[in-house]
Amino acid sequence: MQDLNALVAEACREFADIAESAHLEEAKARFLGKSGSLTDMLKGLGKLSAEERKPAGERINAAKNEIEAALKLRREQLAQQKLERKLAAEALDVTLPGRTAQRGGLHPVTLSQTRIEEIFHSIGFDVADGPEIETDWYNFTALNSPENHPARSMQDTFYVDGTDAAGKPLLLRTHTSPMQIRYARMHVEQYRHATSMPPIKVIAPGRTYRVDSDATHSPMFHQVEGLWIDENVSFADLKGVFLDFMRTFFEDDNITVRFRPSYFPFTEPSAEIDIAFSSGPMKGKWLEVSGSGQVHPQVVRNMGLDPERYVGFAFGCGIERLTMLRYGINDLRLFFDGDMRFLQQFG
Ligand code: PHE
Fold first, then answer.
1. Which atom, in ligand 1's list, is nearest to the CA of 290?
2. How many Cβ atoms sit within 10 Å of the Cβ of residue 270?
3. CA of 77 to the centre of ligand 1 (A)
4. What is d(CA 249, CA 105) in angstroms, rounded to the nearest whole number?
């Protein structure tokens, strides 16, 4: 009798202490299983006399029912706790604002470059791309730059390890003009067996490098080269193309251009191109935007063409400069600082 009450109390205590259902099933086996304490007692009934057997059996059964009830209760508690833990862990706060996907944006210089490519595509120019590590021949010699030209000096040009086939040091191109030669030679080669050659009409935008750094100069900057060679392309065509380029780029139909005599080894005559806006804060001020000129006969020859037959113009324009004018930016270094507060304004 005392035994049974103690057994029920022990089972209740043990069940209450158990925090995991797996352990609860082990405990169940100990009390109610085939070789559990209660089963042992039931087996012992056989040894009792007939009169003793009935009440003892009833007591054992009552104890068994109590233990089973305690077990059921604990099972339910544990299942409920488990469910609550799961719900808490997977809780979704529907009052939180959603996380939007971060949208990237193009760099202002890239925006300008794309814009320039679209403008020139629309008037039949090809867009070409070339190496940033150049040979002395493409960057200088083929462009008619004399051996002692100051641009070749260590102060202006970044030289890199390695030499070309002629044993001259490789360099980071100081302008996009080597693309004049590269593109023209490729074009000439392509039409070598044709009865006539279509005009060379190309722009070549890209990175250029010079040893130079201040508010208006960066050691790495972008240029766009323009080249149009055919049997009768004149300075008037240069003026027409460039003016149209400027008016479309700046969305100002009243921009004016002016050609100021200048010198480049690869053009003759040569000119700086200035533009003036018809309105806005820059109104009426002449702003230099490009070098240009009639392609020098020696350069035409280096393209593999006869300068008596083929003529044309070239220009080379700074893309950062155009971008600064378009958006009213006054410090070139902003383009390369990587400051999101600046860059996000162009998204
Ligand atoms: N390459 C020249 C420069 O970087 C610009 C230029 C290009 C001038 C083509 C004339 C013709 O300054």
1. 5
2. 19
3. 84
4. 20
Q: Is residue 11 within 8 Å of residue 67, measured between CB atoms?
A: yes
Query: Domain 108-346 maps to which CATH number in 3.30.930.10, 3.40.50.2300, 3.40.50.1240, 3.40.630.30?
Result: 3.30.930.10
Q: Is 10 exposed, middle or buried, given 0-12, 13-18 or 19+ CB atoms closer than 10 A? A: middle
- State pTM to two decimals: 0.73
Q: Work out the angle at residue 210's Cα, subtended by the Cα atoms of residues 209 and 213, and round it to the nearest 5 degrees.
A: 115
* DSSP secondary structure string for all residues of 161-229: EEE-TTSPEEEE-SSSTHHHHHHHHHHHHHTTTSSS---EEEEEEEEEE-S--BTTB-SEEEEEEEEEE
Q: Are strands 200-209 and 126-127 parallel, antiparallel or unpaired?
A: parallel
Ligand 1 pocket (Cβ < 6 Å) reads 175, 177, 264, 267, 291-293, 314-316
Which pLDDT does position 2 carry in this prediction? 54
3-state secondary structure of 24: helix
Separation of CA 253 and ligand 1 centre (Å): 25
pLDDT digits (tens, 9 = 90+) for 44-82: 888 888 888 888 888 888 888 989 899 999 999 999 999
Residues 117 and 122: their CA atoms lie apart, in Å, by 9
Q: Do 282 and 165 meet the contact criterion of CB atoms below 8 Å apart?
A: no
282's tokens: 């820059």
pLDDT digits (tens, 9 = 90+) for 239-294: 999 999 999 999 999 999 999 999 999 999 999 999 999 998 889 999 999 999 99
Please count the CA atoms within 13 angstroms of the CA of 270 that sit on its side-chain side.
Answer: 12
pLDDT by residue (tens digit) across 201-220? 999 999 999 998 888 889 99
